[in-house]
């Protein structure tokens, strides 16, 4: 027995016992047209002490989000890392780049490629971004040391042929990731490609899901994890890995992702206090926009078009979002008192930027309750002006994308909030 429990097997046992919580069926939930108060328990009682928030309400909210929306993340599993290649003179000698493969989970779980880049000039440990990308690590920098993903790829990603990455994609998203700016500002970054953890298709026979089924289980149940929860679990395992790197400041891990991967980042941060700062960029419905919102993407639309992103209970709210016993302000509140920046673009109304400002306002009571500044703005800021408070907000001109202007705001925010 001793041997069994001294290995990854104990994680596996825990993973297999993770079960749905004992909450009412959707039909029995009460309707509430407003963004629910994060400081009111499901039974209507008020949270009046910090201990109640930490020990009762936070666990309840985490379980509610998993039960009704994202599905349950398995317990952590042990991570092992192998360095495939290293370039100590990346970005013209400014950075060291490592191409790493991490493994976790039960036997057979697909490996995940991680690109880790850190500044050569540094004083002590550095703040580190953990990021998740759409098109493969090789698209962030044109460096032959970076492996191409072997898993399924989005067909609209650069250089993709027959749903697989090719050499042609190298460096084609350098303007999305802005690695040189990140290094110049004194940060490291570790990123992984989301398709390595779960291909973005309505199919749970690939990626991590089949490997985490309980013995005898053939398919996912109504409260089991969807793809967003799986990608968030991948972020947690990349955090496990970066914490083994000497240069990384374990107290200053910032997490960033765009759109569906922004939804993923907010869930990952809400579920894991090691993430000191979160930037769910243009995350919209199912992430940073209110499910009760009237602008942009509705819950029914996201469940119809992307049924694999959430669990099989979330569609029961399609025509009755007011029954959700939480809204996305409660997911932000789970991060309190840690900084969370909601960043947007004015032409990206699909992601409901003004509704996201309301989400920040409705998360603020928890920050105040914990004795920290919440949102330092009463109204949405002008385009390009960063509200740099624990609950941050940014909106720029332009469309749904991630670019250098966003990264400048992200870094200004992290400089102040990760002190
Ligand atoms: C679609 C989807 C959004 C999502 C976006 C993306 O537009 O409706 O919810 O955020 O894709 O991930 O790019």
What does it look like?
- The protein has 419 residues and is an alpha/beta fold.
- The chain has 13 helices and nine strands.
- Helices cover 30% and strands 16% of the residues.
- A nine-stranded mixed β-sheet has the order 1-2-3-5-4-6-7-8-9, sandwiched between helices.
- The radius of gyration is 20 Å and the shape is globular.
- Bound molecules: alpha-D-glucopyranuronic acid.
- Alpha-D-glucopyranuronic acid binds at residues 259-260, 284-285, 297, 302, 350.
Q: How would you summarize the topology of this molecule?
A:
Blueprint: H1 2-5, H2 9-17, H3 50-70, E1 80-89, H4 90-93, E2 95-103, E3 112-119, E4 126-133, H5 174-177, H6 179-184, E5 188-193, H7 194-197, H8 227-242, E6 248-258, H9 260-271, E7 277-281, H10 299-305, H11 328-333, E8 340-345, H12 353-369, E9 391-396, H13 404-417
Parallel strand pairs: 4-5, 4-6, 6-7, 7-8, 8-9
Antiparallel strand pairs: 1-2, 2-3, 3-5
The protein binds alpha-D-glucopyranuronic acid.
């Amino acid at each position: 027995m001793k041997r069994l429990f001294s290995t990854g097997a104990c994680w596996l046992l825990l993973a297999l016992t993770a079960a749905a919580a004992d909450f009412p069926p959707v039909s029995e939930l009460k309707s509430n047209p407003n963004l629910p108060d994060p400081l009111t328990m499901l039974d209507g009682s008020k949270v009046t002490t910090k201990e109640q928030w930490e020990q009762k309400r936070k666990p309840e909210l985490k379980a509610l989000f998993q039960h009704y929306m994202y599905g349950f993340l398995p317990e952590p599993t042990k991570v092992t890392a192998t360095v495939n290649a290293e370039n100590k003179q990346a970005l013209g000698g400014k950075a060291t780049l490592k191409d790493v493969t991490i493994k976790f989970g039960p036997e057979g779980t697909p490996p995940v490629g991680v690109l880790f880049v850190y500044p050569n000039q540094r004083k002590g440990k550095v703040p580190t971004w953990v990021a998740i990308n759409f098109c493969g690590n090789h698209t962030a920098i044109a460096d032959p040391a970076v492996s191409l993903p072997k898993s399924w790829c989005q067909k609209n990603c650069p250089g993709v042929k027959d749903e697989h990455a090719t050499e042609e994609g190298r460096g084609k998203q350098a303007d999305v990731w802005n690695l040189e700016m990140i290094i110049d500002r004194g940060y490291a970054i570790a990123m992984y490609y989301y398709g390595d953890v779960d291909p973005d298709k309505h199919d749970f026979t690939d990626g991590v899901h089949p490997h985490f089924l309980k013995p005898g289980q053939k398919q996912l149940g109504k409260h089991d994890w969807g793809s967003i929860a799986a990608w968030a679990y991948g972020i947690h395992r990349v955090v496990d890995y970066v914490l083994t790197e000497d240069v990384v400041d374990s107290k200053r891990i910032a997490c960033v992702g765009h759109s569906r991967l922004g939804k993923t980042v907010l869930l990952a941060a809400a579920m894991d206090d090691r993430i000191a700062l979160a930037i769910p960029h243009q995350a919209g419905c199912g992430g940073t926009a209110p499910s009760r919102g009237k602008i942009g993407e509705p819950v029914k639309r996201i469940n119809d078009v992307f049924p694999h992103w959430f669990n099989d209970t979330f569609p029961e709210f399609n025509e009755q979002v007011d029954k959700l016993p939480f809204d996305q302000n409660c997911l932000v509140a789970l991060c309190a008192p840690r900084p969370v920046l909601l960043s947007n673009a004015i032409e990206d109304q699909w992601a409901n930027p003004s509704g996201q400002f309301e989400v920040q306002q409705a998360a603020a009571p928890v920050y105040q309750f914990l004795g920290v500044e919440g949102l330092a703005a009463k109204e949405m800021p002008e385009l390009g002006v960063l509200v740099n408070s624990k609950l941050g907000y940014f909106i720029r001109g332009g469309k749904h994308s991630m670019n250098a202007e966003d990264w400048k705001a992200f870094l200004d925010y992290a400089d102040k909030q990760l002190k």
